[in-house]
Amino acid sequence: MATQTTDTVTIQPARNVVGSVSVPGDKSISHRYAMLAAIAEGRSSFSNFSTGADCASTLSCLRALGCRVSHGVTVEIEGRGMQLDAPSMHLDCGNSGSTMRMLAGILAGQSFESVMMGDASLSRRPMRRVIDPLTQMGASITSQEGRPPLIINGGNLKAIDYKTPVASAQVKSAVLLAGLFADGETSVEEPMSTRDHTEVALRAFGAEIDRQKNRTTVRGGQKLTGIQAQVPGDISSAAFFLCAAALFPNSNLVIDGLGMNPTRAVLLDVLAQMGARTRVIQIEERHGELIGMITVEPRELRGTKIDGAITAAVIDEIPVLAAIAPYTEDGVRIRDAKELRVKESDRLAAIAVNLRAMGAKVEELEDGLDIPGGQQLHGAEILSYDDHRIAMAFAVAALRAKGETVIHGASSARISFPEYFHLLQQLTSE
């Protein structure tokens, strides 16, 4: 069970995870739907839009750019076509790197100056990875040594053929969005495949996209048309419940309306390798995205190794996979995850510190972690480092620990999943 004060949550050990749950709309898809709706013709309407603060930051920026946005049970956005209004104030992206990086691609094609800023955490995060390709396309972008705030002077863009130095769906998306405003065909080639929500969403809004292996091409000058869509449930949010259920052999969990995009559902493959099987009860396609209902079939957890393309595919889920790693039989090895050091926190360091606080042995490497299995954790004082995924991941680790665990900075969960601790309590209450 979870007891929450203003910024602290106390987690008691649980016996199982039982019940049915729906998770908020996918954060990645919500960002993209909103941005494309802004530059589309006509009105778009979205149900199950993400309730997280990050997506609220995107909607706030779009309002500042002249879009009419209503945010109730559904989110409705009146598209402005390809020309937005010059903002009268700085665009506040809050804690959302997705907002800043992807919206920069659209702003690069606008004929005005805009200033994008964020909170203290976002202001430390690297933006050179989008500044470089957008500058090659013709935008003028000023930063603080590659970090926010960003001052973007957009205008006429030229198409480029860009190879991303890191596997990043946000970088790919920024370039593809800028490509809509460019003269000619813009191509992005990645070192390994990343989530394809932008490509799927572009097609849903009427754009033609060519994708060949790790290379995606978009033609400039295409017009988008508004859509009505249901945002699939966020599998990165569901990961916390899936991993929690996997800790207890007598769990019985059903998750409905879950996004099953193949570039995101790799998590289910990793859990299967660890011994926790999931079963898809039903599945359907909506606007190119797969949505399904799944159940978890817990078994004794084995270990696994997460590296290479698998790491890129489950980068957001690594904190919770690491949090349950001590309870596995053989442990978990994580490699090629250096990107986690430049998220909302240094997640590799945060995971190591908190696992050790709970009595676990863990080796921290430059690009990963070695977490032995067969360990019993105890309750402890946990620091979230104002990182939503760290706070939520260690609530899962606490469920099988001995004694209560106190998580400080728990309010950071509002960034992606405000309802999380309430739902966790419901699923673990007898």
Structure description:
The chain has 430 residues and is α/β, with parallel strands linked by helices. Helix 3 (97-107) links the parallel strand 7 (91-92) and strand 8 (113-117). It has helices at 27-38, 53-64, 97-107, 128-136, 169-179, 197-204, 235-246, 266-274, 308-313, 318-324, 347-357, 388-398, 420-428, and strands at residues 2-4, 8-11, 18-22, 43-47, 68-71, 74-78, 91-92, 113-117, 140-144, 147-153, 157-158, 161-163, 182-183, 185-189, 209-212, 215-219, 228-230, 252-259, 277-286, 289-297, 304-306, 332-334, 363-365, 368-371, 381-383, 405-408. It has a four-stranded mixed β-sheet. A four-stranded mixed β-sheet has the order 3-18-20-19. It has a four-stranded mixed β-sheet with strand order 5-6-4-17, covered by helices on one side. Helix 1 (27-38) runs parallel beside helix 2 (53-64) and helix 1 packs parallel to helix 3.
Short note summarizing the structure:
The protein has helices at residues 27-38, 53-64, 97-107, 128-136, 169-179, 197-204, 235-246, 266-274, 308-313, 318-324, 347-357, 388-398, 420-428, and strands at 2-4, 8-11, 18-22, 43-47, 68-71, 74-78, 91-92, 113-117, 140-144, 147-153, 157-158, 161-163, 182-183, 185-189, 209-212, 215-219, 228-230, 252-259, 277-286, 289-297, 304-306, 332-334, 363-365, 368-371, 381-383, 405-408. The chain is of the alpha/beta class.
Write the layout of secondary structure elements.
Layout: E1 2-4, E2 8-11, E3 18-22, H1 27-38, E4 43-47, H2 53-64, E5 68-71, E6 74-78, E7 91-92, H3 97-107, E8 113-117, H4 128-136, E9 140-144, E10 147-153, E11 157-158, E12 161-163, H5 169-179, E13 182-183, E14 185-189, H6 197-204, E15 209-212, E16 215-219, E17 228-230, H7 235-246, E18 252-259, H8 266-274, E19 277-286, E20 289-297, E21 304-306, H9 308-313, H10 318-324, E22 332-334, H11 347-357, E23 363-365, E24 368-371, E25 381-383, H12 388-398, E26 405-408, H13 420-428
Parallel strand pairs: 3-18, 4-17, 7-8, 11-13, 12-14, 21-22, 25-26
Antiparallel strand pairs: 1-2, 2-26, 4-6, 5-6, 8-10, 9-10, 14-16, 15-16, 18-20, 19-20, 22-24, 23-24
